[in-house]
Design a protein that fits this description.
This protein is an alpha/beta fold and 355 residues long. It contains 13 helices and 13 strands. The longest helix has 16 residues.
Length: 355
Amino acid sequence: MELSHPYFHNKNDIDLYIRVDASPNIGMGHLSRCLAIAKHAKKSGFNVTFLSGSITVAERASASNFLFKKLNQSQFIEEEIPEVRKILEKGSSEKRVLLIDTYQITEDYVSAFTDIAKIVYLGSKQITSESIDLLINYSCTAKKDFYTQHCPNSKLCLGIQYAPLGEDFWVKQKPYCNSSNRILITAGGSDAVNITYSILDSLTKEARLSSYIFEAIIGPLNPHRTLLIDTFSKKRNIKLRVNEKEMAKRMDNCICAISASGTTLYELTAKRVPTIAFALNAEQEPDAKGFRDLGLLRYSGSLNSLSIDSLVSNIKEDLLFILSSNEELEKISKQQSKLLPENGTEKIITAIKNL
């Protein structure tokens, strides 16, 4: 049964508050998808405000001309409830929506705001809640039966078709072209274990890959930036992209990609880029395996069960395989077009409007 909010009348006037974090430990994926939703929401007439204790969120939100309210960083998320309530109560619109994107979410936190806002949860945590109005889990492994049982009052947006990607990833797609000699390499916003170094070191020593150029993305939270620049910036066949602002364009120019699991896999799928995926931890494994099972990529393994050397060896062998098979490259690209045909961000905004 849908929760009733008396002030939800004018469908074109919504205050959207986005509670999200970013850090070297949790990476940039949460913030990236929230920024994509925020930009689309703003174009749809929403008033958007970011809420966080993270400096990174403050900088990125402000750079995109969004309001930002700093929260005091606390050990437990429930400790911020009073200050978040004060912010919501000062909203200028009759409709208030709180979108929460953090693994710290709890039922106590959610239920603290149901009298003043509609609650949207974006994430894959298997939460039990009767207070969430809209639940978005775009993982390819999301289970409807679980949420029907444990979040009985929630409208559900489940599956890859709800991937909240930025507009750059939804321009009219070109037919896949395998004439490029560029290979994209990305390990996310932080890459604490510095697997980027190991991948570049291995691939540049492989004679069969000497004709390719490796475009390595160095994320804004990467603690190994100086080492990577010092080691690889003068290499003929390596292009380091530090704090890259045009990821979609980089993807367009590559024959294939090597990527950690996470939001980037959805972006690469939207851009029809055949991909070799790996997992940096156990949490990344389900999505990477799910994409593999759907025929959207090749999966090289996880650092949860492999050493860095073993994982990098698998990545190299998978790369050599797909580069030697035009049929494999085209098969993956066609499957990507089939399973992610349109803009998931638009679907999310429509669902929020209909609350």
